Amino acid sequence: MKTAIVTDSTSYLSTETQKILDIHMISLQVTFGMESFKEAELTQEEFYRKAREEFPKTSQPPLGEFIELYSELSAQHDEIISIHLSSGISGTYAGSQQAAELVDGVKVYAFDSELTCSLQGFYTVKAAEMAQAGADAQTILVELNEMKKTLRAYFMVEDLNHLQRGGRLSSAQALVGGILQIKPILYFEDKVIVPFEKIRTRKKAMSRIVELLHADIKSGDQLQATIIHANRLEEAQQWQEQLKEMYPQVDFEISFFGPVIGTHLGEGAMGLGWVKK
């Protein structure tokens, strides 16, 4: 059986990776005023420049785009695994499920990554590699659910205002965080973004995230890791060098918070995620 792999644009996979692994992409959108953009239509610099002037809105892919993509893939595939950002922060996964019921000739399995960005990309790349090796959907899904047990992600933001405006945190949480100048560490719990710890400085927040990574490394697990930044490439590169010196046995890649996730976290956000190899 031939299995197609689909993900959405918040996995922020490079076009090269998509091409090599035959990954099919469906895009979320950001809107400034009356002008809407698919994520890939804006560079990081363009998006964050616009976002400084006007707070954007985000939207999930239209149901019709899911149906069209799945129908096209059904011509040459028996199964589709569609991997999406957490259902707790977007209706994209639900849209995939809806479309799966409306398309004939192919079995579609929607997979909730329960997070987003390059961590979602970890699932997608693994699924695509297995599909290219001939694995069927059920075998791939077993592996993805095993990955969930060891995948960790923590991130920090400059302030809580973007999360509050985007409906991801309460106004009271954002107000208190702003007054106290807190640089909170956040993570996904039960599919939604919640505070993990309250830290007073950016440097201390990043150090605390490294402590959490160290705990998993100390357990003996071989890890693959990703640094994720919101228009802070130089800082991400410096952090990568520090982490490589501390943990040469771990692969640290650099990715980014693109327009949709950047809308909710704000410019300057920084994250670190990892998974057992």
UniProtKB/TrEMBL annotation:
What InterPro entries does this protein's entry cite? DegV, DegV_C, DegV_domain_contain
From the UniProt record, list the coiled-coil ranges. none
Q: Which UniProt keywords apply?
A: Lipid-binding
Molecular function GO terms recorded:
lipid binding
**Which Pfam families is this protein grouped with?**
DegV
Name the source's superkingdom: Bacteria
Task: Please give the name of this protein.
Answer: Fatty acid-binding protein DegV
Q: Which organism is it from?
A: Planococcus versutus
